[in-house]
Structure formats: C-alpha cells, structure tokens
Amino acid sequence: MVDFGGWDMPLQYGSQIAEHHAVRRGAGVFDVSHMCVVDLEGARVRPFLQRLLANDVGRLKAPGKALYGCMLDETGGVIDDLIVYFLEDSWFRAVVNAGTREKDLAWIRQHAAGFGVDVAERADLAMLAVQGPEARAKAASLLSPAGAASALALEPFFGREIDGWFVARTGYTGEDGFEIMLPGTEAERVWKALNSAGVTSCGLGARDTLRLEAGMSLYGSDMDEGTHPFESGLGWTVALEPRERAFIGREALEAIRARGPQRKLVGLLLEGRGVLRSHQKVLVPDGGEGEITSGTFSPTLERSIALARVPAAAGSSVQVDIRGKLHEARIVRPPFVRHGKALVS
Amino acid sequence: MSNVPSDLKYTKTHEWLRTLPDGTLEIGITDHAQHSLGDLVFVEVPEAGRKLSAGEPFAVVESVKAASDVYSPVAGEVTAGNPALASEPEAINSDAYGKGWLMRLRPAAGGAAPALLSAAEYEKLIAEEGG
C-alpha cells in the first residue's frame, strides 16, 4: 500500500506485470475512487468552462460527450488536467486529480462565482475503471439487459446515466473500456462481481505502466504549474480558435507560441538494457540537457520507455544518465502501445 | 508469508548466503526482498574475478518499481555472476534461493567473520519490519 494524494492505495494486488497484461489482453479493474468528481450546474456553466479551460467545451454538442483538457493559471502553467462531461445544457461533470483536489476546488469556486455556477464535489461516488479488450462486455454483464445494450452502444469518449450509474467509455490505459461512477456503498459488491466475471484486480503500478505505454501524461510528473501545455505534449488540448474565447492563460500561451517553445515533451525508447526513471538527466548530442519526467519498464515492449522534457531542437537520439553511466535512447513519438499493439520498435 | 529456508544464513539488508561444498559462498536476495521489490525486469551481476570488500554493492536488481543495490556481506573474489539472469530476471521472483542466485564468491582469507543472521533471526527481523 502507498499513500497517493492522501489515499491508501495498493501498488499491486499480485504481479504488477500480470495485471498489466490482463488489461492489454483481457480485462482489468482499477479502483480510481480517489479521483475527484465535481458537478458544475448553472445556466452559464458553458461560458464558465470556456473561461476556465484551455480546451473548448464549445466543441461538446452532443449530451454525454467528454473532453480532455487543462486548467491553466494566468502564466499558462498547468493547475491540473481533467476530463469534463457535457450532461445537460446547465450541467457538466468534471473529474480532477486527487493530489490537486483542494487547490482545484478553490480555483474552480473562485471563478465559478462570477458565472453563478454551483460547484458540488461528489464524494458520495466511487469510480471503477474497467479496461481492456474484453472490459466493456464483462462490465455490461453486470447491468440490466436494457442497461447493457445502452452501455455497449456508447461511442468512445461518451458517458451516460445507466441503471443508477454513470458509465463512460473513457480510460487511462490505451485500451477500450469504461470508467464507472457509482454510489460508494455499491463499489465493493461491484468489484467482486467484476472479479467473478473474469476481470483482474489491478493496482497503481499497472495503471502507471499502462498509461505510460499509451503516452498519457501524469499530473505532477509530466506537467505542473511550472510548465505549460506546449512543453508538456499537450498542445493538442489547447483550443486557440475561436480567437475571441478569453480562457485563463490564453495571453501567456500566445506569447509563448509567438516566440516558439524552448522545450518539448518527447517519448524515449532505451536502446539497451536498464530502466529509465523520472528525474534522470537527458543529454542532447549538440549540447543541452533535459530530464525524464516519467520512466518505466514497458511490459508490452519488454524494454524501457519514458517521457522526457528536452530542448526543442533535440533530434532523434539522446543519452540518459542512469546511475552515473550514459545509455543511448531514441526519441519517438508517443503513444508506444495502443489497443494491445506496439507502435514503436 | 515469506519463505526463509533454515539451512541458509541471512543479512539485515535481505541477502542470503549458502556455503557450497568447495567453500565458496552463493549469494542472492531473499524471498521477502523479491516480494517487496515486485516483478524484476533487469539484473546486473558482477564479473568473475572482481574483488569485493564487505558491504560493497555488487549487483543491481531493478523491478518495475525501483532499482536497488545488493551488498556483499563478506569480502572476497567473485567466482561467478549468474549469467541466466540477463535473459530471465524473473527467476529471482519465482525461485529466489535457487535459480535466482546472484553471485558466487570465494571469501578472503583471514577476513573478519561477518555478522550474519540465522533463519530464525531473519524471520524475526522481517516480522518486525512488518513483512
């Protein structure tokens, strides 16, 4: 067990690598109830989120559709990354990180006041992520026949209220699956029913190797308030169009974009043996240094992979200082693995 | 519960030692240690001929979670590093006291007798550590 944002959470239930493969090949379940669910309600909730987030909730036209993006401060630093679901014209639901919960809620409330938006933390909800190629079918088997049909009809990145649960086709593993928000009192029963349906219990360790293979960022490791989205591999989540949308951090990001980002977040593939870890120093051939922000052993590729922040001019290869020895690594474009398939070699 | 064979000696830093018929020592990490580390993915063992002093790191065992040094309990000269671990580091997880051995060492003559633990003492140590 480890402390994670104030929650006692298991790194693994059995073998971390076996849990990882279960998600790539079958189905695994993660207890992600530490994630903070926040309901945002009010007639002006959409313009509020268009001010609060660097991605544009104006893109959400169909009810249930989800959007991933960053909440920035005025300097363009990342306060948190989050998912927001458009439920009704006056109701959105955000899911933010556990470790940033207090500052996120304070920031959201501070800005919500001017829009008359009500901010309600849903501490009553547990959240289970069921992930893997067999995850949707196995999770749907716990629902009523009509509920199962409704869940299986969800398009990627959509969520819907089903049988008293909120079921979303989202995740943090690079596999298909659901994230299910349900009353906390039901979580244990559902967890055991998922196990009985052949879904493997998975801990934080496998969650980290899976998200890293999928090239997904972890707040606090790959980005934080000291970094902006363009140097965090998150430029794709910044909606600069339409130009008149005045989101927090916009001016800072436009200035950064005008002079060109100095650093970038890249994927690294270690050429030899060993394991890349966060904070190891990265040396660029023609001078300059970077740092690994997340590194691990990839169970799918059976070699080490990492995300690293390096000078913007870095080319195709670097050296990494692993405990005093320099090792060759290749710069690749994440993701490393998606839907069970290696995308780099 | 960790497996602690009664015929081996142990250290406070979770190494085990077996005295082989020719007087050399076979050394690895304990079942408790492999369990704490989790799935091992990379192991660096010493080359034969390397001279070690007592307490010197001689191997690196790296799991998905972390890299850890392994310390030689006694001074001596390495007679073999386990070559099989390069391709099969998980042998330490599955067979810590057998196929998972890290090195064999000829103890230096006249070296100070190392402070080793019996199986019972080591079991007590890991119980105290919450293992």
Can you lay out the helices and strands and say which pair or pack?
The complex is a heterodimer of chains A (345) and B (131).
Chain A: E1 2-4, E2 7-9, H1 16-25, E3 28-31, E4 36-41, H2 45-52, E5 66-72, E6 78-88, E7 91-96, H3 101-112, E8 118-121, E9 125-131, H4 135-140, H5 145-152, E10 159-162, E11 165-168, E12 177-183, H6 187-196, E13 200-202, H7 204-213, H8 250-259, E14 263-270, E15 281-283, E16 289-298, E17 303-311, E18 317-322, E19 325-332, E20 337-338, E21 341-342
Parallel strand pairs in A: 3-13
Antiparallel strand pairs in A: 1-2, 3-9, 4-7, 4-8, 5-6, 6-7, 9-12, 10-11, 11-12, 14-17, 14-19, 15-16, 15-18, 16-17, 18-19, 20-21
Chain B: E1 9-10, E2 15-19, E3 25-29, H1 31-37, E4 40-44, E5 51-52, E6 57-63, E7 67-71, E8 76-81, H2 91-94, E9 103-107, H3 119-128
Antiparallel strand pairs in B: 1-2, 2-3, 3-9, 4-6, 5-8, 6-7, 8-9
Order of helices and strands of chain B: EEEHEEEEEHEH
Order of strands side by side in the largest beta sheet of chain A?
A: 10-11-12-9-3-13
- What's the number of domains of chain A? 2
Low-confidence stretches of chain B: none
Helix content of chain A: 10-25%
Q: Descriptors for this entry?
A:
heterodimer, A: 345 residues, alpha+beta, Gyrase A, domain 2, Elongation Factor Tu (Ef-tu), domain 3, 2 domains, six-stranded mixed β-sheet, six-stranded antiparallel β-barrel, 8 helices, 21 strands, B: 131 residues, OB fold (Dihydrolipoamide Acetyltransferase, E2P), six-stranded antiparallel β-sheet, three-stranded antiparallel β-sheet, 16% helix, globular
Q: What's a concise summary of this model?
A:
The complex is a heterodimer of chains A (345) and B (131). With 345 residues, chain A is an alpha+beta fold. Chain A has helices spanning 16-25, 45-52, 101-112, 135-140, 145-152, 187-196, 204-213, 250-259; strands spanning 2-4, 7-9, 28-31, 36-41, 66-72, 78-88, 91-96, 118-121, 125-131, 159-162, 165-168, 177-183, 200-202, 263-270, 281-283, 289-298, 303-311, 317-322, 325-332, 337-338, 341-342.
